[in-house]
Request: fold
Amino acid sequence: MNFKHKFVFLFPGLFVLIGILIFPIIFTIRLSLSGWNSYTPEMNFIGITNYIRLFTDDPRFWESFFRLSFLSVTTVILQYVIGFALAMMVWREIKFKRFFRVIFLVPMMTTPVIMTVIWRTFFHESLGPVNDLLGGLGVKPILWLSDPIIAKFTVIIVEVWQWTPFMFLLLLAGLLSLPKEPFLAAAIDGASPFRKFVYVTFPLMAPISIGAIIIRLIEASKIMDTVFVLTSGGPGTATETSSFYIYIKGLREFQMGYAATLSFTYLVIMIISLTIIAKVLTKLMIKE
Amino acid sequence: MKTIKTCVTALISALLVFSPVAYADKWSDQFPHIKATGDIPGDCSYESMSKKNYKGKTLKINTHAVPVMGEPTALHAEQFAKLTGAKVDVTHTPAGDLYAKAMVPFQAGQAPYDIVFGFSNFINDWRRYLEPVPKKYVEMKQMKDVTPSHIGVASWDGVMYQFPVDGDRHYLKYRKDVIDNPEYQKQYKEATGKELRVPQTWKEYGEMAAYFNNWDWDGDGEKEYGSAEVMKKDDLMYAAFYSRSAAYSKNPKTPGGFFFDLETMKPLINNPGFVEALTDWVEATKYVPPGGINFGLGDEIGSFGGGQTLFSFSWDDAFVAAMQPDSPINNKVGAAQLPGAMKVWNRKTNSWDEGFNQAPFFVWGWAVGVAKKSKEKEMAFDYLCFFANEANHQADIGIGRFGVNPFRNDDFKVDVWTQIGWDKDIAQSYVDTLAQMEQSKNRVFPLRVPGTFEFNAALATAAAKALAGQLSPQAALDEAAKQWEDILNRVGKDNVRKAYAVGVAMEDNKQ
Reply:
């Protein structure tokens, strides 16, 4: 039997895969081995010079990476806890359940850049309403965007507000798909709501929780628009993340070759770290 | 019959006498933007452009976002289209992306835009992709009126690549109603033992700003602050830092470079002059409005223009915005040259030279060029010439949000500003300030070398770290100087030296 015709049907998918995934990665690797910038606009070959520069002479990239790790892990943990709590709330039979389900999703449906501009206005230290409100309560103005530590938490607040609904949506879908029998068995045994959550709900939700956390970690690790609009990485470099730093190197300073080096290195690090995180979470949350 | 002849003669005479008025009205009726002056005759006037026929042709322009420069680009594009029959497509791009949006197609050998707007310090990177301004435009009457400084800014080694549409420099803006107030002068003298006057040095600026910080000195029920400055990293803050550094580091006795020593190409940005300026600037974080450390240019314009601070220094926009009829501080502001210093670093003797020193900073500004690969070069230059014609220019410079600032000798006449409602003494202080800067022999021009962006970004990051308290001023500038050395090695010292020499010649008054 001739199976060759089957390959014809595989070609379109293969072609798309090569076009949108393999080619950009190979091109990025090649670009990372070049010195393409504003004054040498060509794909020359400079070997691993850019990689040597990154690993020996660019502490700013590594600082931005560790900052990103802190921001993304913190935001995702908070999103998970709040998202789970909200999902549990509307999972039960409460009044206006549908209304709340819609309301909780609104932040995710808004445009991140526009909402960040609005948050920036809220947090504006001298003209924004948040400090005005606090002033009315006798609280001194808080330096939401210009204190290096507080600015990190401001970014976290905005990210949590924007993306908790996504976590809520996934977890609610998970809760709605859970089988009823374990809960009935727990009720017959007289388990308290707390024990039901710890021994039934949480373990049953573990697989979808891991999926939701990993999806959000991948997204959170690309955090860019919030930082760009809210603080531009400042004050100083206090809120600069890896993606924002790569953007500065590539599209502000036009160091295309070096930015490609940063991007590829970042991709490799993210693949390794997210794989490890997924394995650890599986071990911790799913009991055999 | 005699009566008829007399009437006809009178009519013809009247038409001849009043023809300029009728001529002006003809165009200002159609284009209210120039209602104050009407059309002003010239090679690129409304009248001249109406004789061109570009029907069926399309002009593509990439410009800044609305309003600053984006609004006048779009307005003049619409006018140009009406006059010539051309189709004009205007794309608006955020400031941070203007460079890359033009550079990517430039490097790929394409010309998606006939005209690209950017900043004048892009010139060294862009010039190989830009068409030099043709002789006929360079020799036009409207170009002859452009000041030598701005011809220099638009040119590279004597060849003009950017069509002058804007003139930029940094200078001091202050609240005249406070500085000239006898009550406050007395109060300030009692409190500090010093005169309240237009600050002559950065130290005076700091003392006055600190005194007038965090209390309601204009009686509007809200607190006011000392100074609004561009301190946000990657938002033009390096230009603000150069402005603060010029007085301490631009020594007329040591020609041969402000940013580098042209001879050795050693970066000078961590010498005691720059460190003193950064130390002052860190101190300034105490007298800016809450959140002032995160102010970009827009915030600075809004803050000073909205009456929130005593001082500000940067481009003209904050001053012109403050002078708009609807501004709360309309006709309450004054202009002066950037403050000086009572000492300036001498890199030859490695010591401070005592005595007053002042150095105007001709910071980069808006610039525009025509792509070498454009197929519509003639139309593109006609558009730019029309954009900057006398009537448009006079109307544009009076609108703060347009970002079009004086660059012609005629702009330095008081009447131009009193006509749009400025008080005479304020107009006088404004034009005097600009004229004095033009006449100065101790000017600083922006860095225009290969890798300009890398140099400025490295400096901005270091200065931002100092402002945020992450590093001391000396450590921050040492870090920046080290990065400048690395960039020099990557780009090639000789490449940078060759380009830097062009700017140094202007600073040393050799060009």
Observations:
- Residues 31-164+365-405 of chain B form a domain with the D-Maltodextrin-Binding Protein; domain 2 fold (CATH 3.40.190.10).
